[in-house]
Amino acid sequence: xxxxxxxxxxxxxxxxxxxxxxxxxxxxxxxxxxxxxxxxxxxxxxxxxxxxxxxxxxxxxxxxxxxxxxxxxxxxxxxxxxxxxxxxxxxxxxxxxxxxxxxxxxxxxxxxxxxxxxxxxxxxxxxxxxxxxxxxxxxxxxxxxxxxxxxxxxxxxxxxxxxxxxxxxxxxxxxxxxxxxxxxxxxxxxxxxxxxxxxxxxxxxxxxxxxxxxxxxxxxxxxxxxxxxxxxxxxxxxxxxxxxxxxxxxxxxxxxxxxxxxxxxxxxxxxxxxxxxxxxxxxxxxxxxxxxxxxxxxxxxxxxxxxxxxxxxxxxxxxxxxxxxx
Length: 326
Description:
This protein is of the alpha/beta class. The chain folds into two domains: about 30-80; about 85-325, Vaccinia Virus protein VP39 (Rossmann fold, 3-Layer(aba) Sandwich). It contains ten helices and eleven strands. The chain has helices at about 1-25, 85-100, 115-120, 135-145, 145-150, 170-175, 200-210, 230-240, 285-295, 315-325, and strands at about 50-55, 60-65, 70-75, 75-80, 105-110, 130-135, 160-165, 180-185, 210-225, 245-250, 260-265. The strands form two sheets. It has a seven-stranded mixed beta sheet with strand order 7-6-5-8-9-11-10, with helices on both faces. Strands 1-2-3-4 form a four-stranded antiparallel beta sheet, with no helix packed on it. Helix 4 crosses helix 5 and helix 8 packs antiparallel against helix 10. It is globular and about 50 Å long. It holds the Pfam family Spermine_synth. Its EC number is 2.5.1.16.
């Protein structure tokens, strides 16, 4: 009887130890999804992790949610094969394309997913699109991962598109080329990647201005402005400081409740009424364009708030920190 009892106790102890090891492995160890999917960013519905991997710059997770694939970077949703992604891409691309005097040469910084490139290819007069991304694996996903290629319609493999694996700022600083439209579609700086401040700085915007053709425009992604409007105000103030004319615009997603902000910056004076769409798109109709160009009350910078981001400070990172700590 004693022998049977000790065998039972031993088996139970082994089970508890193995369960503990497994719990540690999935919670904090190599099996944990936390480095890949933040708890606050987990899908509310059933999901399946298709793949996780590390690149030279980030931790990537491909997650299947229903019929969609969501791409995570360092725990945050970066983009996905979903309808609100189509809306986001239409707004950040077609507003500057409509505002530019010409639109033959396009530079997209942060173009690894290929969705913005897909939208720029709607214009027959486009001669060349340069898509720059710092992460080779991310660019490869946009070129070869079948479900993403289907979503971006093979944009990164199009004969008018050249892809470059390089830091966006380094590429511009070393380039002798000029462009009609430059789109900067990168995430906000975070503690994990504070160096992103350098792609929003006054010094870099001066560099971008020098690489614009006459009548050329910039389109800058400004994150979720309903959560931190000062982030957009600071980017606009920085663009104005280097002598560009600006128009803030936004896109409120009825599906997610998120209001995405952008700044249009031009080498020439420009009014919202001057902007007329040049192509037909499913979401961004002329009526919707007027809504996009009309800021809601909470985004209007009546008190001239915001600070200038330079290479010597961390204005945007500080705004993000304050929002995360609220």
